Amino acid sequence: MSKIKQILQQHILVLDGAMGTMLQQYNFSEEDFRGERFKDYPSSLKGNNDLLSLTQPEAIATIHAKYFEAGADIVETNTFSGTTIAMADYDMEDLVYELNYESAKIAKTVADKFTKENPNKPRFVAGSIGPTNRTASLSPDVNRPEYRAITFEELRIAYKQQVEALIDGGVDLLLVETIFDTLNAKAALFAIEEVKEVRNIDIPIMVSGTITDASGRTLSGQTVEAFLTSISHVPLLSVGFNCALGAEQLKPYLQRLSDKTDFFTSAHPNAGLPNAFGEYDESPKQMQTYIEAYLQDDLINIIGGCCGTSPEHIKAIAAVASKYKPRKIEVTA
Questions:
Q1: CA of 36: how far to CAs of 26, 40, 54, 138, in Å?
Q2: Rounded distance, CA 165 to CA 90, Å?
Q3: What local confidence, expressed as pLDDT, does residue 221 receive?
Q4: CA 87, CA 329: separation in Å to the nearest integer?
Q5: Does 323 have pLDDT greater than 80?
Q6: CA–CA–CA angle 74, 77, 79 (5° rounding)
């Protein structure tokens, strides 16, 4: 924890870009997702990107390496859907520990290689903890507003299993990201604190929410300030926003966040807003220009990319980030 804090005092750290965007370029078939091990599996597996850490580990390692080559300091594990809740879609709940553990090991092996080649630029692995496909705050049934598809306790148990596997696999940080429902995130943070206490460890925690539209609120209805208040009781390394919006649209919310918190701040926005085909058109140069505005206004400590971003985007972001000092905060060891 103290090492990363020291680095963040001196430099803006660069997070990687989108895993899904890179995997799409491989155009993996159902058979590719299955591999030899799952060739007779009864459920359809295409689209289960987390599974590729077991069936196509070379591709995952290559993507991590490309982001490090582009200048990233931190890569995220391929575990965005790595809970029993999300894996239920593929009838793969029993694989959750292995998926997270192996994903962490792949990323850590690549990170260690790059650190060894250049010890002056240590590389880190963030265990990616996604929001799941259920919400604890909202009912999925408009006719039953009191109904919930998931409970806090179910989320806590699922997140705890994921966190234990990520730590066992060697991650340096934990990133609770793309938070659309703060209650889900609080279950993840509760689980992390449980694991930290049992193991007597102190692992840095990054939290990244999602402003879903121009209302400036999360899906569960919180403003920037309310979201920050809801999670600030946890000793966090950083708090920030990712996904849903492009860099230009995200800036005013980052400004409000930066003004209100003493945590380090992070952002990994999309490459603009999706077009009519759901694709992201913002070029690395365009995104670099928008992100330079963050840096000029002293808003950020950790910067990367989400949907639609590639190593070319991260290279452009890293190049401009290297010219600026990080946002200053008072740090206690």
A1: 18, 9, 10, 40
A2: 19
A3: 87
A4: 39
A5: yes
A6: 150
254 versus 219: which is more confidently predicted? 254
What whole-number distance in Å separates Cα of residue 221 and Cα of residue 216?
9
Rounded CA-CA distance 172/191 in Å is 17
Look over the chain and give the mean of its residue pLDDT values, rounded to a whole number.
Answer: 95
Query: CA of 77: how far to CAs of 215, 307, 319, in Å?
Result: 31, 15, 23
The pLDDT of 90-118, averaged and rounded, is 98
pTM, to two decimals: 0.95
Reported confidence tier of residue 277, pLDDT bands at 50, 70, 90: confident
Structure tokens at 219: 């899906």
pLDDT in tens, 136-157: 988 888 888 888 889 999 999 9
Residue owning tokens 């403003």 = 223
